[in-house]
């Protein structure tokens, strides 16, 4: 079942070629809480300034006023769906696609789109579709100043944190199922993910010119930027990819290459070991050495 959503003047670039659909203008705080977020993104391979401190990343996320008590936790007996946020850089060559899902609890997300506009982004296309997993809100976003998709890892992470922050504010029950709930939420997660158990790293051949890197690990603020930093520090280029936030977990899929060639086995091992070492020590500071 598809619902059309009109093109909105908000700064964000989505890679979605679906027809524009008209979305209900009901505000987020009037719709039952719940959301899923997902996304794929294309990254610039040139050097970039990395946000190392969590505080910097959190500060980039745009805040909106807290929802009224009417949107507070509903019936505690209700099963809270798993929030999902997807940032897709692969689907559309000219826009960054963002998808948000939280069961059937999301509204039109007008406040979220306005928050993205404050990051210097435009929402050029938006639609909503329903399936067995719930209601999916999908946006195509671009940068206001260039009209192109977002390629800066820091800005992509700011988009992710902004969406999650708004989700927690308008649907407080979602914070118990998000790693960001520890930093931003009213209800913190009851269980913490064991990084050693949750972390999975796989590298596959994806043709003669690139390889596919898959990383699954415990989510935390700044993770997207840190993953790209680790990969590029060993002279591996990140061509494009997708970064998904699924509850307490983060799942990244990057197309990578070394000198425009797929990674050979020894380099795959170096990359895998570097990522595993870093992800198991997420709070280690450089000053501690």
Automatic annotation (TrEMBL):
Keywords associated with the record: Repeat
One GO MF term attached to the UniProt entry: amino acid binding
Record domain ACT: where: 97-177
Gene Ontology CC annotations of this record: chloroplast stroma; chloroplast thylakoid membrane
Family annotation (InterPro entries): ACR1-12, ACT_dom
Alphabetical list of PROSITE patterns matching this protein: ACT
Function (record text): Binds amino acids.
Protein name per the record: ACT domain-containing protein ACR
Lineage: Eukaryota, Viridiplantae, Streptophyta, Embryophyta, Tracheophyta
